[in-house]
Amino acid sequence: MVSVTRKVCLLGEFSVGKTSIARRYVTGTFTPDYHATLGVNIYKFADAWTSEEGQDIEANLLIWDIEGGELAPGLRESYITGAAGALVVGDISRAVTLDAMAGHAQMFANEAPGRPLAFAFNKADLAAATETDGIEHALAERFDAPQRRVSAATGDQIIDLFRSLTERIVRIGV
């Protein structure tokens, strides 16, 4: 049994569904109302599962839901400090948010070198056939990170993606 307590940051543009993803993972609920996060919201969630390799994992995650957009340099360091990993979120129905995902991922990689990332292409329930011009696979390869089309509304792939990120955190020992 591996037991970890780790900080994970949610990064992305405004209105991509970071808060909805966090709430879906932590409480299993979804609310369609939009309220912009100002600063950071912190959620705590305990999860336990057996990995595909047969390893029992118990994770206590502190999920930092960070406001959307580009962060001021002073805030960036204070929010990212101590993070074991990050989930970078984009809205597959809004190309501009997908284009911004690489910048958020690179910022995290610069601030927390060697820490794992994962990519959530949210709102798959609304835009299942959206063409993303290969950005999903390009980001996954560039940052050696798992990626999934997810839906905060339905919960599809949310748990799987958080667990995949957590397993990478455990594997590299951060």
Description:
The protein has about 170 residues and is α/β, with parallel strands linked by helices. The protein has a single domain, classed as Rossmann fold (3-Layer(aba) Sandwich). Helices cover about 35% and strands about 30% of the residues. It has 5 helices and 6 strands. A 6-stranded mixed sheet has the order 2-3-1-4-5-6, sandwiched between helices. A hairpin with a 5-residue loop joins β2 and β3 (about 55-65). The chain starts with a strand and ends with a helix.
Number of strands: 6
Poorly predicted regions: none
Distance between the termini: 16 Å
SSE string, helices as H and strands as E: EHEEHEHEHEH
Topology (SSEs and partners):
Elements: E1 2-12, H1 18-27, E2 40-50, E3 56-66, H2 73-80, E4 83-91, H3 95-111, E5 117-122, H4 135-142, E6 147-149, H5 158-172
Parallel strand pairs: 1-3, 1-4, 4-5, 5-6
Antiparallel strand pairs: 2-3
How is this structure best summarized?
This protein is α/β, with parallel strands linked by helices. It has a single domain, classed as 3-Layer(aba) Sandwich (Rossmann fold), CATH 3.40.50.
